[in-house]
C-alpha cells in the first residue's frame, strides 16, 4: 500500500499551492480544479506520480482562459483560414487590449451625448480610401454582401454573370447567400464569357443591383471575357463589386488582385471586402462607396444584426493606421531571407535539407500566385509531433515530406520554432 505511485495529494491541498492559486485567479478555479483531478486520475490509473504535482498541473493548463491555442504557422500560407487568416500586428493587439474595457465607442466625451459608433475607424477607412464617400463595417465579407443585396434588391433581382457564381470555401456559395436575402438571382452570360449586352438584356425595372464578384479562388483561362466595372456603371442601376480580399489600392506584388479604390474610381456604387485577408486586420466586412447608398445599408434593420464590437473596430483602425502588418511582412519576405533563416534552422537541428518552397497568399485569394521561398525538409512523421508540441507548429506536408517554411514565422520567433522542431525531430 506504500507504492509511491499511489500517493495522490488531496484536491484542496493542491489547490492551496500558491502557483495553482495564482492560476485559479487568472484562469478560473473550475478549470484548474479539472486539471488537478485529471492529474490525480492519471496517477490512480497507473501513470507515474510527478515529483512536483503543482508544476505538472500548471504545465497541462492553457496559457490563457481561452482554449484557443496560439500556433506557429510554418505552412508558408499567409492567410491560412484554418489558422485564423491574418495575424494581428502589435499595434492592433495593443488597441484591442485598450478597447476591451469601457470605451467611448458610441459616446462623445465632450458633449456627454451618444455618438456615431466606430467613427474613428470609419474616418481611418476614408483616409485610406479617399475615393469612398462613406463606409460601413460589418461582421465579415459575407455579411457585407448580404447587407448590400438585401438593402438594394430584396424582393427584386440581382444581376450576376454566370462566370462569377462562385463557392468561396467551406460550402459558402454566392447564389445560396443571395437567395437567403429574399433577392432573386438573374444570371447572365456563360461560365467563360459574359458581355455588356448580356447585362443590358438582364437589367430591367425589376433590377435591384448588378453584382460583380471577384472569383478569388480560381482562374478561368482561354476563351474568356468579362465586363469591367466602368462599363457596368453605365447600365443605370446600382453596381456592387465584391473584391473579396480587401486590397485597398493596387499592389505590384499582386497585379491581378482587384482593389477597392480602382473599383470605386471605375464607378462602382458599393465595394465590399473582408478585413482579415489582404487588409491584414481582424475578421470584418467593409462596405465603401457612395454616401446615399452606404446610408441605405446603414439604416437597414439588418445592419444592427451584422455590426461589429469595439475590439474589432479598434483592431481595424490600428491596422489601417499602423505599421506594416504581419501578413504583409510575410508576403514581402524575400527568398534570400527565407533561405538564410531556413539554413540557420537546419544548422540548429544539425541536419535537414533546405529546399525550394513556394509560399501562397491563402484565404482563397490569388490562386495563381506563388511566393518563391525556402523550407527545411524533414521526414513526414515529424509533422504530427510538431502539432503536438509546445507551442504547436503547423508545417506543410507535401510529397511525403514535412516542410517547415519560415515565411509566416515572425523572425523574433525563429528560436522558439527551432526549439519546437528540435524536440519533435528528437521524438
Ligand atoms: C472571402 C470572400 C468572401 C467572404 O468573405 P468572409 O470575410 O470570409 O465572409 C466573399 N467574396 C469573396 C470574393 C471572397 O474572396
From TrEMBL:
The keyword Zinc is assigned to this record: no
Pfam family, one: SelA
Biological process, per Gene Ontology: conversion of seryl-tRNAsec to selenocys-tRNAsec; selenocysteine incorporation
N6-(pyridoxal phosphate)lysine, modified sites: 277
Enzyme Commission no: 2.9.1.1
Protein's pathway: Aminoacyl-tRNA biosynthesis; selenocysteinyl-tRNA(Sec) biosynthesis; selenocysteinyl-tRNA(Sec) from L-seryl-tRNA(Sec) (bacterial route): step 1/1
InterPro entries: PyrdxlP-dep_Trfase, PyrdxlP-dep_Trfase_major, SelA-like, SelA_trans, SelA_trans_N_dom
Keywords tagged on the record: Cytoplasm, Protein biosynthesis, Pyridoxal phosphate, Selenium, Transferase
Main localization of the protein described in the UniProt heading: cytoplasm
Domain L-seryl-tRNA selenium transferase N-terminal stretches: 5-44
Function (record text): Converts seryl-tRNA(Sec) to selenocysteinyl-tRNA(Sec) required for selenoprotein biosynthesis.
UniProt-recorded name of the protein: L-seryl-tRNA(Sec) selenium transferase
Source organism of the structure: Motilibacter peucedani
Lineage: Bacteria, Bacillati, Actinomycetota, Actinomycetes, Motilibacterales
Gene this protein is translated from: selA
Amino acid at each position: 500500500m506504500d507504492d509511491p505511485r499511489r500517493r495522490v495529494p488531496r484536491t484542496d491541498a493542491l489547490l492551496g499551492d500558491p502557483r495553482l492559486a495564482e492560476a485559479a485567479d487568472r484562469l478560473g478555479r473550475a478549470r484548474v480544479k479539472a486539471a488537478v483531478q485529471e492529474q490525480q486520475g492519471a496517477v490512480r490509473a497507473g501513470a507515474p506520480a510527478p515529483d512536483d504535482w503543482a508544476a505538472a498541473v500548471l504545465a497541462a493548463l492553457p496559457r490563457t482562459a481561452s482554449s484557443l491555442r496560439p500556433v506557429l504557422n510554418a505552412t508558408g500560407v499567409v492567410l491560412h483560414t484554418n489558422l485564423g487568416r491574418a495575424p494581428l500586428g502589435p499595434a492592433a493587439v495593443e488597441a484591442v487590449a485598450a478597447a476591451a474595457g469601457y470605451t467611448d465607442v458610441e459616446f462623445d466625451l465632450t458633449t456627454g451625448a451618444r455618438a456615431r459608433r466606430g467613427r474613428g475607424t470609419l474616418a481611418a477607412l476614408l483616409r485610406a480610401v479617399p475615393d469612398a464617400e462613406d463606409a460601413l463595417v460589418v461582421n465579415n465579407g459575407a455579411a457585407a454582401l448580404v447587407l448590400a443585396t438585401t438593402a438594394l434588391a430584396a424582393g427584386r433581382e440581382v444581376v450576376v454573370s454566370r462566370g462569377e457564381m462562385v463557392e468561396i470555401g467551406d460550402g459558402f456559395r454566392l447564389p445560396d447567400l443571395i437567395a437567403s436575402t429574399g433577392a432573386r438571382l438573374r444570371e447572365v452570360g456563360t461560365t467563360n464569357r459574359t458581355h455588356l449586352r448580356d447585362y443590358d438584356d438582364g437589367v430591367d425595372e425589376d433590377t435591384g443591383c448588378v453584382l460583380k464578384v471577384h472569383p478569388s479562388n480560381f482562374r478561368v483561362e482561354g476563351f474568356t471575357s468579362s465586363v469591367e466595372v466602368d462599363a457596368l456603371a453605365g447600365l443605370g442601376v446600382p453596381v456592387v463589386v465584391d473584391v473579396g480580399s480587401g486590397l485597398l489600392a493596387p499592389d505590384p506584388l499582386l497585379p491581378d488582385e482587384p482593389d477597392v479604390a480602382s473599383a470605386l474610381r471605375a464607378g462602382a456604387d458599393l465595394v465590399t471586402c473582408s478585413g482579415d485577408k489582404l487588409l491584414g486586420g481582424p475578421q470584418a466586412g467593409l462596405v465603401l462607396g457612395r454616401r446615399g447608398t452606404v446610408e441605405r445599408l446603414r439604416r437597414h434593420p439588418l445592419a444592427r444584426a451584422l455590426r461589429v464590437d469595439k475590439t474589432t473596430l479598434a483592431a481595424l483602425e490600428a491596422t489601417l493606421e499602423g505599421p506594416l502588418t504581419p501578413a504583409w511582412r510575410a508576403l514581402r519576405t524575400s527568398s534570400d531571407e527565407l533561405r538564410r533563416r531556413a539554413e540557420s534552422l537546419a544548422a540548429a537541428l544539425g541536419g535537414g535539407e533546405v529546399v525550394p518552397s513556394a509560399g501562397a497568399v491563402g484565404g482563397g485569394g490569388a490562386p495563381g500566385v506563388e511566393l518563391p521561398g525556402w523550407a527545411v525538409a524533414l521526414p513526414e512523421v515529424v509533422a504530427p509531433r510538431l502539432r503536438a508540441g509546445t507551442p504547436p507548429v503547423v508545417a506543410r506536408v507535401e510529397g511525403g515530406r514535412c516542410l517547415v517554411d519560415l515565411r509566416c514565422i515572425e523572425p523574433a520567433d525563429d528560436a522558439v520554432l527551432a526549439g519546437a522542431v528540435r524536440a519533435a525531430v528528437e521524438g
